[in-house]
C-alpha cells in the first residue's frame, strides 16, 4: 500500500509538474499580457460597460477591507503601500464606514 502511495506522489511530481497556480493549456506560465486579456474578456462576458483590468481586483480588495472596518494602517501594510495617502482612498470612499460609531 505504501508503494502505491509513493507511486502516486511521484506521478504528481513528475514533469510537467509546475508550482504555478494558473497555467496555459501547455502548462506554461501565464504571461502578464495573457492575464490582462483574460480579465478583459471576463469583464466583457459579465456585461460591464467599461474595460476591466487586473488592477481592479487589488482595488476591490482594498475597498472590501475598508468596508469591513479594518484599520487604514493594516490595509496599508496588507496592500504594500509605502505612502498612507494611497491607502486613504479606500476609506474616504466608504460611506457606511462610520455608521455605527455612536449607538443610541
How far is it from the N-terminal to the C-terminal residue, by CA?
A: 65 Å
Coarse morphology? extended
Approximately how much helix is present in the residues? Answer: 40-55%
Listing every helix as H and every strand as E from the N terminus to the C terminus, the arrangement reads HHHHH
Based on helices, strands and strand pairing, what is the structural class? mainly alpha
Backbone CA Rg: 21 Å
Uncertain regions: pLDDT < 50 for 5+ in a row? none
Strand content: under 5%
Report the average pLDDT across residues.
Answer: 82
Q: What is the β-strand count?
A: 0
Total helical elements: 5
Major sheet characteristics: none
3D structure, described in words:
With 104 residues, this protein is mainly alpha-helical. The chain has a domain at 52-95. The protein has five helices and no strands. It has helices spanning 2-13, 32-46, 55-67, 72-79, 84-92. Helix 4 crosses helix 5. The radius of gyration is 21 Å and the shape is extended. The model has no long low-confidence stretch (mean pLDDT 82).
Topology:
Blueprint: H1 2-13, H2 32-46, H3 55-67, H4 72-79, H5 84-92
Helix pairs in contact: 4-5
Descriptive terms for the model:
104 residues, mainly alpha, 5 helices
At a glance:
The protein has 104 residues and is mostly helical. The chain is 55% helix and 0% strand.
